[in-house]
Amino acid sequence: MSEAETDLLRILSGETPGPFVCDVDPIGADSDKEHVIAKKTAGWIVCGVLLNDQGQVLMMQEAKRSCRGTWYLPAGRIEPNETFQEAVCREVEEETGLTFEPSTLLMAEVNGGHWVRLTFTGTVTGGKLKTPAEADGESLQARWCSVQDVRTENDMPIRAKDIFPIIDLAVQHQSTPESQKPPCVLPVLQAHKFVSLRLVLLKGCSEGTVPELLVRTTPTPHLPTTRMLLKDWSIILPLLRLLRTALVLTGDALSGKLPIQLVGVLGVEHLGKPHGLADGICLTLLYTLAVGEDTPPETTHEYSWCPVTNEELRARLIDTCENNKCIKFKVH
């Protein structure tokens, strides 16, 4: 089994493959202007979507002047020296009065290189639902609401409809039998200074095939990596920079149409401590070659298509790709 396969198994097991080394480092990535400082150069957002046994969703009523009286999922920005898990637990308790234990990430969203939102689900462990008499600057009240009432805004105006697909995802997760659910994934506590990306690109990932993995072969075999500049308007830019280095691209790919299809997020790494030195994030993204790419692009001399030889890893990758068993990824 190659070192790249070992690293991928670690990621799928909720571990870090080790210190991040950037293969394709864009100009300016090492400048002081490009490293992440929470609430200053980048905004990391957490969101909690919790359902009770009756299928009702936990909602809070906004207290902020700009959206006072509207309803939303408990959410907010990470504070300095906080992990994502600590932040979402704090936001849920501040805005709803309830404590909860995060069980897994459901969605990761990116808007350029300066905004990331991670959505968690989990189990309520205690606390008391905030009433109107306990209104404060965090929220006016909290309530368990039927999904139908939220969607139709029945006596509860919604702050923004971007929560609808998040709620739908939570309902789908709750109704899926345990044996068919994606593995639970929580951010791994690993320090990063920048917005880093690790690419898992597969070809031939279907039942009865031996998937091949794009691997950087020097100095030792590992998964390809790059960084995202804070000023990048889209994640397409760093991925294109990486693919142009790893593959011999032709046709539409040269103009920015990537020859790959997104499956989702396999892992997230973040620590947030100490503030200003470890506020960055690393996303491990799973892609497959796009439909129609019957003849895969040739690799450049530092990269190679390597067969996945480990049977456990091969089975997990095929199951993940065919059944979309990973964290949903949305690019704004």
TrEMBL record:
Q: Would the keyword Protein biosynthesis be found if you checked this record's keyword annotation?
A: no
Q: Which UniProt keywords apply?
A: Hydrolase
- Single GO term (MF): 8-oxo-dGDP phosphatase activity
Locate the Nudix hydrolase domain: which residues? Answer: 41-171
> Is Protein biosynthesis given among the entry's keywords?
no
* Similarity comment: Belongs to the Nudix hydrolase family.
Q: What PANTHER family would the database entry show? A: 8-OXO-DGDP PHOSPHATASE NUDT18, MUTT/NUDIX HYDROLASE
In Swiss-Prot or TrEMBL terms, this protein is called 8-oxo-dGDP phosphatase NUDT18-like
Q: Which source organism does the UniProt entry give?
A: Branchiostoma belcheri (Amphioxus)
Question: What gene codes for this chain?
Answer: LOC109484668
